[in-house]
Write a structure and sequence with these properties.
2 strands, mainly alpha, single chain, about 60% helix, 14 helices, two-stranded parallel sheet
Length: about 325
Amino acid sequence: MLIDHNGTEEVKAPLLSSQCAAALSVAFTAFYVLPFYLSPTTRPSPALSRDAPSVIRARIRFVMFSVTLSTLITSYILSTRAYKSFPLILHTLGIYPVIPIAIIKSVLLTALLFAGPLFEKGIIESGWRRWVKGEDIHETLSSWIGWRNFVAGPFTEEILFRSVLVSLNTHTRPLLPVRKLIFTTPLYFGIAHIHHFYEFTLTHPYTPLLPALVRSLIQFAYTTVFGWYATFVFLRTGSLWAVVLIHSQCNWMGLPRIWGRVGGVEVQGGVVGGPTRGKEDTDAAQDDGPQRLGAAWTVAYYVILVAGAIAWWKTLWPLSESQGALMNQPLG
């Protein structure tokens, strides 16, 4: 059951069939991805990478139009089929009210999950000096790749896959159980990233098919698991802005290191939508070469990683609690 931001008014009976909600979800997802391949300015080729600034700019324009139209259609459906007022539509979409404490708690909760990588990046690699000076933020947002990975990508993807699709699927007849809602709607998010397999094979023609396929399967798994978490946070906080920020946060961190020594060869790549470590602004190495640190640093990393994961699990419900919640029932 959904509640308004005052926690008092129950929404009216859901008026969309589950088949209609699923069809709209597929249509909106396709409308988000397919335009990438309809224009020569956004379509990758062996001679044109998806990381080319011209491609990034054109794709951002397309997806902004796509999610704006999807949001307007969803708002119309909520207004005419569920008889929602404009303020309640904004709340259902997670746009308003903006609750800063819910956003801050969501970011802190996610930081616990990445306690190990934060220790590695901040302490072992001395990244805290750059963080304090704001150098990473400035350099990241000075490139189109950084702008895509940490601003436009998280913003547009969370509007579509959380704000729009979750809103549609919480107004179905019969009402979709919360657990099923959390674990099924992110599948659209995972599937939407499968096109990266085609793009990768196109721009890396000499890479064997099997490694490329494995890379895409890891990407699908990672984006789907992230989608589960983001959907949970969205329902618990009722905040689009919270999930946009944790999406950017996860893109920056990538998959945590789960093997090997710290301070050695850097693990490359990783994104919400990619395999390991954080999204980088360029393919260039960020350090002067591998370093060998004492085993104590590696032990400390894994201890902090496990401790952070345990703390994340124990605080998952209290730190995601919010007065703007869209979910007031257990997962069962």
